[in-house]
Amino acid sequence: MSGDALEQNFRQQLATQSSVSHWIIALSGGLDSMVLLELASRCLPAEQLTVLHVNHQLQAEADEWQVFCARQVERRGLRFIAESVSLKEGSVETAARHARYAVFERQLSPGAGVLLAHHGDDQAETLLFRLFRGAGVRGMAAMPRQRLLGRGIVFRPLLGVSRLQLAGWARKEGLSWVEDPSNADTQYDRNFLRQQVIPLLTKRWPGLSQRLQVTANHLADAEALLEELAQADLESCVADQTLMTAPLLQLSDRRQTNLLRYWCRQSGIQLTAMQLSSLRNLIAAGDDRQPELLSGRYIIRRYRGRLFVDPVVFFQAWEGFLSDALDTTVKHSAGRLMLEADGEADVLPWLKDVEIRNRQEGDKCHPLGRPAKSLKQLFQEAGVPPWQRDQWPVCVRGGSIVAVPGICLCESWCEGENKPPFWLDWQPAALFAGSDSGTL
What we know:
Blueprint: H1 3-15, E1 22-26, H2 31-43, E2 49-55, H3 62-75, E3 79-84, H4 92-107, E4 112-115, H5 120-132, H6 137-140, E5 146-149, E6 152-155, H7 163-172, H8 189-204, H9 208-237, E7 238-239, E8 242-244, H10 245-249, H11 253-266, H12 273-284, E9 292-295, E10 298-303, E11 306-311, E12 328-332, E13 335-341, H13 348-351, E14 355-357, E15 364-365, E16 373-374, H14 375-382, H15 386-389, E17 394-397, E18 400-404, E19 408-409, E20 422-428, E21 438-439
Parallel strand pairs: 1-2, 1-4, 2-3, 4-6
Antiparallel strand pairs: 5-6, 7-8, 8-11, 9-10, 10-11, 12-13, 13-20, 14-17, 15-16, 17-18, 18-19, 20-21
Helix pairs in contact: 2-7, 5-8, 5-9, 9-11
């Protein structure tokens, strides 16, 4: 690919992202990212660019590379940001990637995107890396050209270009870059593939990287079709943002698996094969049981033939007065309580001495227009899962329950036909909760 063709291709790639108003260039200082920086500085106005360097502090030269990047950005008249990160224990490659993407996500705002310098050889390397780890179709599709990240997107405009082409263009344009000595260390899996495996395979099958890129594209198409199928199946299996097990079990085993993976992924859960097997067992458990599956920060539970995904929360006792929620949001480990006045009505007399507490043994109330009931009965009728009940807010005055937010308003809080002139909402922290956002 000639220099003009490379720049033209880059412009064409950016033209597909017209909704992005500001780009963040991820700059390591290496060859690939320096080509990306040069192309972006030529093709985009300076006011639409910010250059971000993540200092992983892994090499003795790390601070020197940061200085190099700052000078290169200054020469081009662009805004420069540098952030240092400390890696958690575990695989250095994985920890560095997680730390880097966490920085990207923090920097992204709506309408912004991160430009990454991954190229065609990186794509081929990623496919092989995931193949040897036993990845499925989604993993084998390798790196997408574009994906969502936080409030913005990640975009890889150089995926169709080889590293050899980038190197040739960089030398022709007189670019400078830094060399990370760790790239030659074959104790790292990707370096082993890059330095030893791929060159050996290429000797036997010339054009290997290009062929693997084509394979990755085919697999990406297959993954897109699986997602479309999962979305169609989800429409017949979802209710109140929970997954109903009865229609789920009417699907073939493969479609069940596909849908469960997709549904969990929407909640930020990546199921392993073992977790998927445990989830199938959870679905098949007897009706008298309340099984659950813990996965990272989330718990998957089944209740009344539905699957719920909840974030792991710790018990927090309710305390204080309902007036604290006036025109604001009371945050709680189990959710959010919101009170919004209706127009110009004076709500303070209604809120006087109304406290918020957790439910207690033997709690009963008299819902407006209905017979008196225990809280347990009200929760059951409303379909509130058992694990949400202990932290559900209960509004009381003078020892009597006046409201159960999201479920009922009580006779004791009304004056004849007059009802409180405000909205009272309770939104459980559960990501998928059938009783979410009830309103008084």
